[in-house]
Design brief:
By secondary structure, the chain is an alpha+beta fold. It has a single domain, classed as endopeptidase fold (from Nostoc punctiforme) (Alpha-Beta Complex). The chain contains three helices and six strands, in the order H-H-H-E-E-E-E-E-E. Strands 1-6-2-3-4-5 form a six-stranded antiparallel beta sheet. Helix 2 crosses helix 3. Belongs to the peptidase C40 family. GO terms for molecular function: cysteine-type peptidase activity.
Length: 174
């Protein structure tokens, strides 16, 4: 092998070693943690588990910090009753500007965005966030269905129920 070819191959291999693939971003981590759940059960027989499933995905992707992270100022707070408690298992518990960029148009959702829906069940004031899932970026999202069947499904984003999305700050992910 002549010296020029050897030097070129050596330089290319050294360059490949020092320029590893970038660490996946928060969006990739969320989607990769969510997709294996497709068509799998999550807490069968227990209703209202969408945020608990979403938190499981967030914890798997980004660590324990997401287990109890919650806002005291969700976007829908003005619609809640005086006795309504703000809790981590509520769909609106991460629906706040403090966690990232609010997405108000469902067409602007990207893979990894949390997507919130209003008035999907219950007797709540118009506009109260009652469901959450994770956008997949192609007009679909993955979520734990509210029904007691408890299956995680990929479905089109129901724009008629869309409240907002949030593109979480990468700094939230460890």
């Amino acid at each position: 092998m002549n010296r020029f070819i050897f030097a070129t191959l050596l330089a290319l291999s050294l360059n490949a070693c020092t320029h590893a693939a970038p660490e996946p971003g928060l969006a990739d981590k969320l989607v990769n943690a969510a997709l294996p759940w497709q068509d799998q059960p999550f807490r069968v027989g227990k209703a209202e588990q969408c945020m608990n499933w979403t938190r499981e995905v967030l914890v798997a992707a980004c660590g324990e910090r997401f287990r109890m992270l919650e806002t005291q100022a969700p976007w829908d707070k003005h619609l809640l009753g005086a006795d309504d408690k703000l809790l981590p298992e509520h769909a609106d518990s991460l629906a706040a500007d403090e966690f990232g960029q609010k997405i108000e148009n469902p067409a602007q959702l990207q893979a990894g965005d949390l997507v919130f829906f209003k008035n999907t069940y219950g007797n709540w004031a118009e506009g109260v966030i009652t469901h959450v899932g994770i956008a997949l970026g192609d007009g679909t999202y993955i979520h734990r269905m509210t029904s007691n069947q408890g299956l995680v499904k990929i479905e089109p984003v129901p724009v008629e129920d869309f409240a907002a999305g949030i593109r979480l700050n990468d700094t939230l992910c460890q």
